[in-house]
Specification:
Largest sheet: none
Number of domains: 1
Structural class: mainly alpha
Number of helices: 6
Radius of gyration: 18 Å
Shape: globular
Strand content: under 5%
Helix content: over 70%
Number of strands: 0
Low-confidence stretches: none
C-alpha cells in the first residue's frame, strides 16, 4: 500500500510542478521578457534558442536542486548554482521591470539622473547572494 501511495504522491507532485512551471514560462513569454532579453543581448535572431535554453536550464536545475545534497562538490557547487540562479533571476527581473516600465516611472518619481548601472548591479548581486544563502541554509 505504501508503494502505491508514493507513486500517487510522486505523480501528483510531478503533474503539479509541470503545470506551475508551464504557467510561469507562459507568463514570461506572454510579457515578452525572453524577446526583450534577446534584443538587449543583441541576439534577436536567436529568440527560439533562448527560449529553449530557459526551459532546459529550469528543468535541469530543478532536478539538480532535488539531489543537491548528494552531489559532489559540496558548497563550491552550491555557490556556482547560486551564481547562475542569481544571474537568471536578475536578468529576468530586469527584463520584466523594463517591459512593465517600472524603472522609468521610478526614475521620474525620484528624479534620478545617474546611477542606473549601479542599481542594476546591486539588483543582480542581491539576487545572487540571496540564492547562495537560500541554497546553503535551506
Amino acid at each position: 500500500m505504501t508503494i502505491i501511495k508514493y507513486v500517487i504522491i510522486t505523480f501528483i507532485g510531478l503533474a503539479s510542478g509541470i503545470v506551475v512551471s508551464s504557467a510561469v514560462f507562459a507568463f514570461i513569454v506572454a510579457l515578452g521578457a525572453v524577446n526583450k532579453t534577446a534584443s538587449i543581448m543583441g541576439r534577436a535572431d536567436r529568440v527560439q534558442w533562448l527560449e529553449w535554453m530557459v526551459i532546459l536550464g529550469a528543468s535541469i536545475f530543478n532536478v539538480v536542486y532535488l539531489f543537491i545534497e548528494s552531489l559532489l562538490g559540496g558548497y563550491v557547487f552550491i555557490i556556482i548554482m547560486g551564481l547562475f540562479f542569481g544571474i537568471f533571476t536578475g536578468i529576468m527581473a530586469m527584463a520584466l521591470a523594463e517591459i512593465t516600465r517600472v524603472l522609468p516611472i521610478l526614475y521620474m518619481r525620484v528624479n534620478l539622473k545617474k546611477g542606473l548601472v549601479y542599481i542594476v548591479i546591486a539588483t543582480v548581486l542581491g539576487k545572487v547572494i540571496g540564492s547562495v544563502f537560500g541554497l546553503c541554509y535551506k
